[in-house]
Specification:
Distance between the termini: 15 Å
Oligomer: single chain
Number of domains: 1
CATH architecture: Roll
Largest sheet: 4 strands, antiparallel
CATH class: Mainly Beta
Helix content: 10-25%
Strand order of the largest sheet: 2-1-5-6
Length: 88
């Protein structure tokens, strides 16, 4: 299972439980965001952008109630269902 498949699997397994993702932003800084995988409301004005790059996950940040994206190649760790999975 490759990295993208593993991340997608962890998100799917969470169901409607919250998922916390820690990743490195393009500028090199670290960011953490928490989201509910079942929050699938459309991103207004963008259409379906999920097919553009399979490495990019678009989610709604629970704290900011704003759409965010992260690159699977930059993920450090994911916490879901009380379990942390780290990526190198």
């Amino acid at each position: 299972m490759n990295r993208i498949e593993r991340i997608q699997s962890l998100i799917n397994e969470a169901g409607s439980g919250f998922v916390s993702v820690t990743f490195i932003k393009k500028d090199g800084s670290e960011r953490q965001l928490t989201f509910n995988p079942k929050d699938v409301n459309d991103i207004k004005g963008t259409g379906d952008t999920s097919k553009v790059d399979p490495n990019i996950f678009r989610v709604r940040d629970n704290a900011k109630q704003a759409w965010r994206s992260f690159d699977a190649r930059r993920v450090i760790k994911i916490k879901s269902k009380g379990k942390t999975t780290e990526f190198s």
